[in-house]
Every structure is written in structure tokens, then in C-alpha cells.
Specification:
Helices cover 32% and strands 21% of the residues. By secondary structure, it is of the alpha+beta class.
Length: 442
């Protein structure tokens, strides 16, 4: 729907109504809605001086010009005027120099004299909301309804309070106000898209989100809320309040130790739930807090730091082992062994990672050290036996390949094998570790 009554109407968009930015509609657009702050807009334009001299144009270029409303990517007159236009509208923007190129003139744009009023004929082609999805797949589209206050937004660990209302196919499905820790929204039933968007919101900001099923209720939907399988959901989200976590630089040693204990407990909770990536984030925070603490340690603080840091690296190794991130397992175990060269768990987990990577000789070395410190460790004995069996089989397979390639006179020396196929009698998957070996450092 277009509004022909707007044609030829000139609107003064400046607060003092002194003609700083004048917007005149040439051809009306469609609909009642225009772009909002944060939207990506696409326009064609012609820039002219008051005598009609053209100094810039997008018309001869292959694609429309695009920019983000409210980000100071263009002159102030554009940010203000285009936000008042409708899709498909053609308008003339007349801007005094203080809202365009100011006294610099040509220094900012060739062909524009200093302190010159400029005119733009602009066609607003379309606009798009901000895509906040991690993969830029269009799954979380944000359109700002109300600007927030200040510049800060929540970070992981912030205590956040939001208010939101959700719809599916025009039917209201949920209205909630919820307080949660940023990064742990699923603990209070927050759908992923809302939590991801909240991380980009300022206090007092109100956004409308369009969420694909991937970031809403998934393939199955929600029978309780009346959300159909694979349904798109629309949410209005308001950032009511948030409190940023303390900066480690502003904390004393005792506070860092206490916070690390808290992170350890959180990580263990997520480990037990099988949420290993989430557990990793908390164990990593322990390292971030504790690693720089090397001075001002009093009483038992040094011993507490040592135990917590060792536990963090061991638990990181275990989480990475569960996720089959074998190089990270070796890295974390080696760091743990720098803290305690007799750590049986570090040696065992590193040996497990090396065995899974077919590094048999190195795995034998780690399991052998475990048995030096704990001669009766049955898990290490089992893994050592399996490791030697696989090492031998890899050697025989390699020998057979050499025979086929070079004849019966070929020689080779035994060692670790790569590319071997292994028997299924001993499952060395990280998910089959014994309870003793698979428990985090509580």
C-alpha cells in the first residue's frame, strides 16, 4: 500500500526545526514500516550540489550501496532520513553541511566544496535485520524496537534478567521474565536464540527476534507450548537488567580461589550431564584466574592454587578425551605433569590419547610410568597389554605390506604403526574408561 498524499511533502527531521535535514518524498513507498537502528539497508542514490552538479552516484555501479542504520557508517543526514522512509520510496534529502560533510568538504568526499549544502536523491530498495546466528545462516534475525542505555552488553558469567514474549504462527506461546547466568540459559529453559541475542543487548533495549527452529524449539517443537515441529518463532525480548562479573584484575588472591572453586563445581555439574563443551568453558576459566597468581600467596593459598590448577588441567584433559580432541588431551596432561610429575591421571589420560592416535611407543611409556607409581593399577595394565598387542599387529601388517611391495628379502624394524586395522576385543574408546579413571577432580 502506498500513500500518494506524501508526494511533494517536505519534512524537517532536525530537532530544532531549522532545516538541517529536509526529507521530500518523490515517489511513496509501500507499507507502514521503515528500517530501524541496526538494520542493513540497500539503496541507490545520486549526490548533487545545489546547482545540480553530480558528485557521486550508485546508479552506474553493479550493486546498490548498503550500510547499517545508526552505526555512523554514512553521513548523519542519511542515518536520520532513511530511517523515516518506506520500502520502495524515492526521496530527496537536503542536508546542511553540519549533517553531511561539514567544513572538510572534499577532504571527506571529492567534489564537495567546504561548508556546502548537499542534496541526495535516494531510493530505498530493501533492508534486512541483523543476523546474530553463529554461522550467519539467517537463523537469528534481530530488529531493534527500542534502543538501550550505555554501551555495555552482557558477557558470559553475567547475571541477566530479561522479559520476553513468544509467538508461533501468530499464536502467543510464552510470556516470561527470567534471571539466569549468561551462558547457562538452558538451565532455566531459555531457547538458544534468545540467549545468543541477549548477549548483544544493552540495558533497556527491546528487540524483535525471528528464530528458525534450530535456535528455538528444534525439530520436535514443543507440545506443551503448542509449537509445531521445525517451527519458526518470533520473540520480543527486553533487557531488563544485567550485572557484569568481576574482572579478575580487580580480585585479590582469596577471591580468585573462591571463584575458581565455583567454576570447578559448575564444570563438574555440566560434566555429569554430558555437556563437555560447557564444562570445558568453566575449567578454562579456572586456568585463566589461577595461572597468573604467582605472588602474594599467604598460608595455604599456594597449596590451594596448586591443587585447583592441577584439577583444572586434568578435567580439561578428560573433557577433551570425551570429545575425541586428542591433541588437546595431550596438551592439558603435559601441563598437569608440569605441576605434578607423578600425576597418575595425567599419565593415564595422555597415554589413552596417544594410543587412540596410534602412537604406541609413547603410549607404552605413559602406561609404564603409571605402573611405576601404582604397580597394581589394573586399568593401566589392561591398556598397556592392548597397546602392545596393537603395536605388534601394526608391525606385522607393515611387514606384510613390505613383503608384497619388495619381496621376501625386505626388512623393517618394529615400532609404532599407523594405518593399521585393530581387533575389536578391547574397546579403547574414551567413553569406556573405568569410573575411577573417568571421574573429574571433584
Amino acid at each position: 500500500m502506498t500513500d500518494e498524499s506524501l508526494v511533494g511533502v517536505v519534512r524537517d527531521l532536525t530537532w530544532d526545526k531549522q532545516g538541517g535535514i529536509l526529507l521530500e518524498t518523490i515517489n511513496p513507498g509501500r507499507g507502514d514500516e521503515g528500517p530501524r537502528i541496526g538494520d542493513r539497508v540497500f539503496v541507490h542514490y545520486v549526490g548533487m550540489l545545489e546547482d545540480g552538479t553530480v558528485f557521486d552516484s550508485s546508479r552506474n555501479k553493479k550493486e546498490p550501496f548498503q550500510f547499517t542504520i545508526g552505526r555512523a557508517e554514512v553521513v548523519m543526514a542519511w542515518d536520520c532520513a532513511i530511517a523515516n522512509m518506506r520500502k520502495g520510496e524515492m526521496a530527496r534529502i537536503t542536508s546542511k553541511p553540519e549533517y553531511a560533510y561539514e567544513a572538510e568538504g572534499a577532504a571527506k568526499h571529492p567534489g564537495v566544496p567546504c561548508n556546502t549544502t548537499v542534496i541526495f536523491e535516494v531510493e530505498l530498495i530493501e533492508w534486512k535485520g541483523v543476523d546474530l546466528s553463529p554461522d550467519q545462516d539467517g537463523g537469528i534475525i534481530k530488529r531493534m524496537e527500542r534502543q538501550g542505555q550505555r554501551l555495555a552488553t552482557p558477557v558470559d558469567g553475567a547475571l541477566v534478567t530479561i522479559r520476553y514474549q513468544g509467538w508461533c504462527e501468530g499464536q502467543e506461546i510464552e510470556v516470561r521474565q527470567v534471571t539466569y547466568t549468561q551462558g547457562e540459559g538452558d538451565d532455566v529453559g531459555l531457547i538458544p536464540g534468545v540467549e545468543i541475542a541477549a548477549k548483544h543487548m544493552k540495558k533497556g533495549e527491546l528487540d524483535r527476534l525471528t528464530l528458525s527452529s534450530k535456535y528455538a524449539y528444534g525439530e520436535e517443537g514443543s507440545a506443551d507450548l503448542g509449537v509445531l515441529p521445525r517451527a519458526t518463532v518470533v520473540c520480543d525480548v527486553e533487557m531488563v537488567h544485567f550485572e557484569l562479573p568481576l574482572d579478575p584484575m580487580d580480585m585479590d588472591v582469596e577471591e580468585k580461589l573462591e571463584e575458581s572453586l565455583h567454576f570447578k563445581a559448575k564444570g563438574t555439574t555440566y560434566f555429569k550431564k554430558g555437556k563437555y563443551e560447557r564444562a570445558i568453558s568453566y575449567y578454562r576459566k579456572m586456568v585463566t584466574y589461577l595461572e597468573p597468581v604467582t605472588s602474594d600467596l599467604q598460608g595455604d593459598q599456594g597449596l590451594d592454587r596448586h591443587h585447583l590448577l592441577l584439577a583444572a588441567h586434568l578435567n580439561l584433559a578428560l573433557c577433551h578425551l570425551k570429545l575425541n580432541h586428542l591433541s588437546q588431551v595431550e596438551t592439558e596432561c603435559s601441563r598437569a605433569l608440569e605441576l605434578d610429575s607423578h600425576s597418575v591421571k595425567a599419565l593415564f589420560r595422555r597415554g589413552q590419547a596417544r594410543l587412540l592416535r596410534c602412537e604406541y611407543s609413547r603410549a607404552v611409556e605413559d602406561f609404564g610410568k603409571v605402573l611405576e607409581f601404582e604397580p597394581g593399577n589394573r586399568a593401566a595394565l589392561t591398556q598397556l597389554s592392548a597397546c602392545r598387542q596393537r603395536q605388534c599387529q601394526a608391525y606385522l601388517q607393515e611387514k606384510q605390506r613390505c613383503f608384497h611391495m619388495f619381496g621376501p628379502g625386505a626388512q623393517m624394524s618394529p615400532g609404532g604403526g599407523g594405518g593399521a586395522t585393530f581387533p575389536h576385543s578391547t574397546d579403547l574408546s574414551p567413553h569406556r574408561l573405568s569410573d575411577c579413571e573417568a571421574s573429574p577432580e571433584w
